[in-house]
Specification:
heterodimer; A: 11-stranded mixed beta sheet; 8-stranded parallel beta sheet; 13 helices; about 30% helix; about 30% strand; globular; B: 4-stranded antiparallel beta sheet; 10 helices
Chain lengths: ~475, ~250
């Protein structure tokens, strides 16, 4: 069964169940984290014992760990016992019944972004019966993928349908004990996506969570695993430009990518979670661990991210370049405005011979936003002739914001070539006035300048996504200058 | 076309323009000369609506409307073009894309259809010949890494493409070698027409050998102290501004 139809069925089922008051209690786990809660989550999902043990092991280790404090972000201490770790999809009756009940400001943003009406309903959490368009699209796509032997389903489904693959690769790139938030995710992860591209297959379309939009309630602890076998290729798009309604303040996702010999994985993200109000209240805390393993020779992993949302972003999509001649890429645009704080960057770990990595990071700070680039380039002794090129540009709008750069370079092989370039620029009144004087409005001037600044990153996005991302940036930065 | 009446303006509270009166008819070329700090560039900035300058008194009528009521972009769309003394660099935005955006913003304002890429390229190629500009400059970011001469040529190219009703050129001749000066002047001359007016702001008479003005005005301490024909520029070249300064002091 496809992920979409399954989720819809679940929704329909629960909608029915929720007709009985007594059932509601059973679907809600009270706040707090303990081994019992983890057992309950695992049982609800009907997971095999090995996975429960895997979760428990992660949890026990998490208990011994301390929350990291090295990032250049400040937020009140998170009370992990105050969070509910399992929530079934919301009942229809709790949700807005039509767009009339949705915050007009949100609708205005959808309008600016040009989001189709029926998608607005889903994004705003309106209780729609079924979205026929996306279901049929998703179903036809699924059969096309199945013909090629490609697996694209929810993580939970993969646990049941393809347990051997999940067991082989889960935690192989981001170990359970990797870091505080990855350990937490490993203990309590809710759902996510699973992708498997068989040997020699080139995935014929961009895979997108967009087609599983109904599954957006996968919750705050998303887990994604993508495996590309020898010579396989896949491009995966995550997220959506539309601001999404979400009551969960803490998000701690884990994404693992595995590329075998000659395989290529391209992973593109547009993140636009709620950033909080003008005082920084109520925004999403986004603590994400994303890592790809170039396991085979000549393999390649590219990360592209456009991060405009969330109150706190803590995210370092990384590549372990294990196979000889493997290539890692990281292209990023991160925006911090209002009271947003972003600490993001990448790690490129060179292990194999002739491995190459490219880092292009564009940080935009506006309002009171604080934007930090944090990157590590590590060349291990085994990595003969490794090369890295890093470019790290910051743009400031206004005089209350900040841009910070923390590049770490650790080269332990004398044949390595590592380059790092950094610039900081400011959108000046003079630039705006120059554009005004040529007939451009201030808004058009800002978007022209910002898009010019981000061009190198947008170029790496799939065409449609690039257009959306450009628009998103315009809307996000509206009113930041002048 | 343009009537300036008793214009006063300040920067950071400091008075710079102290009552300017000037009328420019369609098709006329006026030159404003004056020593450093006399308010020449301020006049250019005030006419184009730079937010750093405050008009404290007076009015500016342009095409039967009050120019000072318009936002800077609307002044540009209505045909007021400022050739910058120091053209601003915009990294990452190609010259050709910038100019296309500007042309289309102005066309949209006039209710004309936007130009597509092909039509635009045809237009721009024609205009580039006017200023002898290398085509490769069009793909480079706006003014970034341009030489002084290239920047000024780029200003004239923009003016040629945007076809303003009033071109205000703020020290377009400064920092140019003689060949570049001739090219820039040639561009301005080619754009002269019965409908189009120019206000040339300059330190030196040199430019006026190539772009011959109808009127020359001497600006001292924020006021026009003398107006005359093109011969006034030659006079100034010989005697300097001292004479007028004395007049002012007395």
């Amino acid at each position: 069964m496809s992920a979409t139809t399954k989720t819809l069925d679940e929704l329909a089922e629960q909608g029915y169940k929720f007709g009985f008051v007594t059932d509601i209690e059973q679907e809600t786990v009270p706040p707090g984290l303990s081994e019992d809660v983890i057992r309950l989550i695992s049982a609800k999902k009907g997971e095999p014992d090995w996975l429960l043990d895997w979760r428990l092991e992660a949890y026990r280790h998490w208990l011994t760990m301390d929350e990291p404090a090295w990032a250049h972000v400040h937020y009140p201490k998170i009370d992990f016992q105050a969070i509910s770790y399992y929530a079934a999809p919301k009942s229809k009756k709790d949700r807005p019944k039509s767009l009339d009940e949705v915050d007009p400001k949100l609708l205005e943003t959808y309008d600016k972004l040009g989001i189709p009406i029926h998608e607005r309903e889903i994004l705003a959490g309106v209780a729609v019966d079924a979205v026929f368009d996306s279901v049929s699209v998703a179903t036809s796509y699924k059969s096309k993928l199945a013909e090629k032997g490609i697996i694209f389903c929810s993580f939970s489904e993969a646990v049941h349908e393809h347990p051997e693959l999940v067991r082989q690769y889960l935690g192989s790139v981001v170990p359970r004990k990797d870091n505080y938030f990855a350990a937490l995710n490993s203990a309590v992860f809710s759902d996510g996506s699973f992708v498997y591209i068989p040997k020699g297959v080139r995935c014929p379309m961009e895979l997108s969570t967009y087609f599983r939009m109904n599954a957006q309630n996968t919750g705050q602890f998303e887990r994604t695993l993508i495996v590309a076998e020898e010579g396989a290729y896949v491009s995966y798009l995550e997220g959506c430009t539309a601001p999404m309604r979400d009551e969960n303040q803490l998000h701690a996702a884990v994404v693992e990518l595995v590329a075998l010999d000659d395989a290529q994985i391209k992973y593109s993200t547009v993140q636009n979670w709620y950033p909080g109000d003008e005082n920084g209240k109520g925004g999403i805390y986004n603590f994400v661990t994303k890592r790809g393993m170039c396991k085979g020779r000549n393999s390649k992993i590219s990360w592209t991210q456009v991060e405009t949302g969330s109150a706190i972003t803590w995210k370092y999509p990384s590549c372990i370049l294990k196979g000889d001649n493997s290539v890692g890429e990281f292209y990023s645009v991160a925006v911090a405005r209002g009271r947003q704080q972003a600490d993001t960057g990448t790690k490129m770990i060179h292990m194999g011979k002739n491995t190459r990595s490219t880092i292009v990071s564009k940080g935009i700070s506006a309002g009171f936003g604080q934007n930090s680039y944090r990157g590590l380039v590590r060349i291990l002794p085994s990595a003969e002739n490794a090369r890295n090129y890093s470019q790290c540009d910051s743009m400031l709008m206004g005089d209350q914001c900040g841009a910070h750069t923390f590049p770490y370079i650790d080269a332990r092989n004398a044949t390595a070539q590592v380059e790092h370039e950094a610039t900081t620029s400011k959108i000046g009144e003079d630039q705006i006035f120059y554009c005004n004087q040529r007939g451009l409005s201030t808004e058009d001037a800002v978007s022209l300048i910002v898009n010019g600044f981000c061009k190198e990153v947008f170029r790496t996005l799939p065409m449609e996504f690039a257009v959306e991302a450009q628009k998103l940036l315009e809307v996000s930065l509206e009113g930041s200058v002048g | 076309m343009l009537t300036i009446k008793n214009l006063h303006a300040t920067v950071d509270g400091k008075p710079i323009l102290n009552g300017i009166d000037l009328t420019i008819e369609a098709g006329e070329v006026h030159a404003i000369m004056g020593p450093n700090g006399s308010g020449k560039s301020t006049l250019a900035k005030v006419l184009s609506g730079h937010p750093g300058y405050e008009v404290t008194a007076g009015e500016v009528l342009y095409k039967d409307g009050n120019l000072l009521d318009l936002a800077p972009e609307d002044r540009a769309r209505e045909g007021v073009f400022l050739g910058f003394q120091y053209p601003v660099e915009i990294p990452g935005v190609s010259n050709v894309y910038f100019l296309k955006s500007a042309v289309n913003a102005i066309r949209k304002h006039r209710g004309e259809p936007e130009l597509d890429a092909m039509d635009f390229l045809t237009l721009i190629k024609k205009r580039m010949k006017l200023v002898h500009m290398d085509e490769s400059l069009m793909q480079r970011p706006v003014n970034a890494g341009f030489s002084g001469g290239e920047k000024k040529r780029n200003e004239i190219l923009q003016m040629a493409v945007l076809e303003p009703a009033l071109g205000v050129l703020d020290e377009t001749d400064s920092g140019l070698d003689i060949d570049a000066l001739k090219t820039v002047a040639g561009g301005v001359n080619a754009l002269r027409s019965a409908e189009r007016s120019f206000l040339l702001i300059t330190h030196y008479q040199r430019l006026l050998n190539y772009v011959v003005p109808d009127y020359v005005h001497v600006l001292i301490q924020g006021r026009i102290v003398k107006s005359g024909g093109k011969e006034l520029a030659l006079e100034l070249e010989q005697s300097g501004y001292a004479l007028f300064r004395d007049t002012e002091a007395a």
